[in-house]
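User: I'm putting together a small comparison set for a docking exercise, and I want a reference complex before I start. The sequence is below, and the ligand is 2'-O-acetyl adenosine-5-diphosphoribose. Could you produce the 3D structure with the ligand included, as structure tokens?
Assistant: Of course. I'll restate your input first, then give the structure tokens for the complex.
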Amino acid sequence: MVQFQKIVVLTGAGLSAESGLSTFRDADGVWAKYDYREVATPEGFIHNPAKVLEFYNMRRRENRGVQPNAAHRALARLDGEYPGDVLIVTQNVDRLHEAAGTRNLIHMHGEMGQMLCNNCGQRAPWGEEELTVEMVCRACAVPGGLRPDVVWFGEMPYHMERIDNALAEADLFISAGTSGTVYPAAGFVAEARNRGAHTVELNLEPSDGVSYFHEKIHGKATEVVPAYVEKLLASAADARP
Ligand code: OAD
């Protein structure tokens, strides 16, 4: 029998950093250049929708041509090859986990491949076009409501019931590339640990929640994540009858 039957992996911006995408809270991060209240809250969108849309158009341009790195590929391998259940929960709105081949994936903060109408709630693929305040929703025909399908501060993250159920059942919880500052994701480690999971942090530096982790491995995602995945797959191979 494998050591762990049900694994939940939480990922954050640090996982995509070595693909060339900015994190949020590092010295040169997104929130050092932009005020999150202006560009990532419902109030900011009401106050200045054009500014918010331009922020996400810019972030989408930055995402163009970006490729998954060894950490995304290792987690895709874990998802595909581990004999137990593996669920990847990402706070990232990029599509690098999918690009690496991960299938069992939840985008708890939404993703930039879709747009959402603030007026009627309809979702639609967000193609190559840039979002503007003049755009009209195809479902309700109201202009001005289209926005990226990402979760802003003050909004409820997606798929929380499914995530909570997975955390309650998990026997291994891994947090990779996240500062552990934004709730509810920052609370997942305590939730999983309280329900009996072994907890592991894989991050460049100690996160805010570092004391909740049984194991802490600090280093670059492209090094520490593949190494940990390799260990899990090797122990699963050893456990084969
Ligand atoms: P943060 O920017 O808060 O944290 C990124 C973490 O990754 C930090 O702890 C870094 O030390 C670490 N890091 C940086 N480079 C790394 C590397 N090469 N390898 C490993 N770790 C590295 O990003 P998140 O924790 O993802 O939400 O932020 C959580 C949420 O806050 C985001 O989803 C976003 C943001 O505001 C919304 O926009 C709603």
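Residues 221-239 form the longest helix (19 residues). The domain at 1-21+68-109+157-241 is CATH 3.40.50.1220 (Rossmann fold).
User: Thanks, that's exactly what I needed.
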